[in-house]
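Dear U.,

For the methods section draft, I wanted the exact inputs and outputs in one place so we can describe them consistently. I've listed the two proteins in the order they'll appear in the manuscript figures. Please don't edit the token lines directly; just add comments below if something needs changing.

First protein:
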Amino acid sequence: MISNIEVGRTGVSEERVRQLARHYQCPDASLVDALAEMASSRKVRHWWDEYRGKLPDDFLDVSEIEHYAVGIRTAQTVHLPGLFQTEAHARALFDLVVPALPRLEVELRVAHRLGRQRVIDRDDPVTYVGIIHEAALRMQFGGPDVARRQLEHLTEAADRDNVSLFVIPFSAGSFHGAGQSILHAEGPVPQLDTVQLDSAYGAHFADAPTPLANYRSLLELMKRSSLRADASQDFIHSIARDL
């Protein structure tokens, strides 16, 4: 039973989580409560379940991580945050996948990416902090018109109380984390934090204490290289006006 739980073949109930925690004499009540809450909520069918078997599992894993996160921090140097991509921008990205994807799979991936954005719009929206390099802002995926609408959408998102965007300009020169694409999802307790990294072969997840501490430090260093939030929003506006 335990091996099946560990590889995701078998679900685990709230009662089972608490039973295992007692058996292993786990002293952290807040961690046990958070795990039990997650187990309880998994009894409900979530929106990403409709994509199960249609998209790679790591797409669904990212959706689940973002759904349960109490805070999300990201850093991108080439691409814009998935939680704020327009439909046209996302479609232009998926059209560049090699080998080329069938049209149906492109549309499924676009619909899934737009579905992820509900964590920003829901009644209890997640707190989001995004760090974006100027290079990502100037990449014209889909052409100038698509890029301009994408940047306008990004500045509108930055007006939300739960969203903060920070731009690292070219003038900052070298900076920590260059070339990285990082998603740090903060769990209800620090032990449930997860980092997701993009790669050419799919998503990579890290949840061990040492890598988590390193990525938290890296995100802080990247933020120090960025403009203030208000200056960042003006910077994005200026690039959009030039398109």
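Second protein (the one for the lower panel):
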Amino acid sequence: MKKIKNFVLAFATVCLTAGLASCEKEKEVEKIVEKPVEVIKEVEVPVEVPQDNNWSRYQSIVTADVLSQKKHDKAILLVAFGSTWQQAFNAFDATIDAYKAAFTDYDVFLSYSSAICINRAAAGENEADGAEIRNYYAPPFWLNAFADKEVQYGEIVVQSLQVIPGEEYTRVINYIKDFANNANGDLDDDYLANVTLKLGVPLLQSKENDVPLVAKELNALYSEKVKEGVVAFMGHGNPDSYDTYKANVRYTQLEEALQKYSKYYYVGTVDMMDNFKTNVYARMQKNGIKSGKVFCHPLMSIDGDHGHNDMAGDDDENWDGMKFTPNEEGEVEDTSWKMYFHHLGYECNDDTMIELGLLELPTIRQVWMNHTQDAINGEPLDYYHSKNPE
């Protein structure tokens, strides 16, 4: 018998490892809790976790899925943040197919790192808009399945589908480290000592290589659009307190690289200080672009909630008929990019929304796939240390 505080700590570890996160803003997950958590008095309870809990059930489902699909001794696990939109599901399906075609010696699987995205996709959050009910699972379930005694892949490549090496990428690294170090003590240590682990980095990992390459490919896709007007890419970004590795700078670097092709390219975010849509507008004004078309395009792996709502939605509650009122950070809340630029006199409407996630663009998806190949060709991952950007 152990005290409940040990049980609570063990349960908390399980929840965090499972990828407990908000579907769009993990930092605000506490907002969904309607009642304060009560402090439980310390009492004697058994430490064993029941075998019929959801964790065990999900693990059984994932392990059975891996067993049914296992054809090779090597596996690639794609890690996306997640979404509940059918367009995103289709993008993920196409990405899996592309990986299977390119990496024929590997079994390929995809996981969500956001628990809320997992739960909402399973609940059919956007079923009314044509989305299927989909079951996705967090990376630890897949990694544990890969180590199951009936599976035991000899090589595991984890590929981050993040755009920048920021907060979410840090979580991907930690999944691998916890797995390799047998954080829960329930895996075969001999197997872990011999399995080869590798990590594919995010899209814009490198300023020197990835940023100019992605800029080149985006310009190849949208060089005709940029002749008609502004092409404004909307990334996610991290608030300053979550700007792991100072990765937000990749958005600024990408805009600089794109503007070598045209001053009509811009890159803003929904969550990066000093790079909201208001800041994009200020840069456009400074460059003398005070009218004309504004094409908006998600700079995210998929076109999900942010693309459908923050970018292309009809929300303009902040517009009082004459002006917008920015918040203390300088952002105009409760207003989509489409409606913001529309009210400021630009031609920005449904017809100028380019609602495609980056995984839907084969030449951009290939950059992620290049990172996977680089990981396969490189040294095994030193999982005792983080694989940080330089």
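Candidate sentences for the figure legend, describing the second protein: The longest strand covers residues 74-80. The mean pLDDT is 87.

Thanks,
Y.
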